[in-house]
Specification:
The chain has about 120 residues and is mainly α. The chain has 4 helices and no strands. The chain has one domain: Up-down Bundle (de novo design (two linked rop proteins)), CATH 1.20.1440. The model has no long low-confidence stretch (mean pLDDT about 95).
């Protein structure tokens, strides 16, 4: 990669932005979901950008480490989609939010796949 930081990666910026949206919106979910769907959705969403950052930092040793963390990040993006589906089906988010977040994670997954292939 270059001499920048993980914050320079568009895939990081997008995954961070959607995770912030999820964090804010999930604060409105029912209190009984605090340690269930809310927690799981937040963990998977923040895992996407956190693994990009951690892998970028480990890239100094090898691209294989970075690639491994990007694969984990891609898995977390897919997990987030499942939790987003649950949130829509349980009525915690409307179809518009569901569509926007689902589309964003589809694009993030494609971006991660492309980055993995480049390494």
């Amino acid at each position: 990669m270059n001499n920048g930081t993980f914050r320079d990666l568009l895939v990081y910026q997008r995954s961070y932005a959607v995770s912030l949206e999820i964090y804010r919106k999930s604060a409105t979910f029912p209190k009984e979901e605090r340690y269930a769907i809310t927690d799981q959705l937040r963990r998977s969403a923040t895992s996407v950008c956190a693994n990009i950052a951690e892998g970028y930092g480990r890239q100094m040793t090898s691209d294989n480490d970075f690639k491994r963390f990007l694969v984990i990040s891609k898995g977390s993006a897919q997990e987030s989609v499942v939790w987003i589906d649950y949130c829509r089906d349980l009525g915690y988010i409307d179809d518009g939010i569901w569509a926007a977040w689902s589309k964003e994670y589809d694009e993030i997954s494609r971006m991660l796949y492309s980055l993995i292939k480049k390494l």
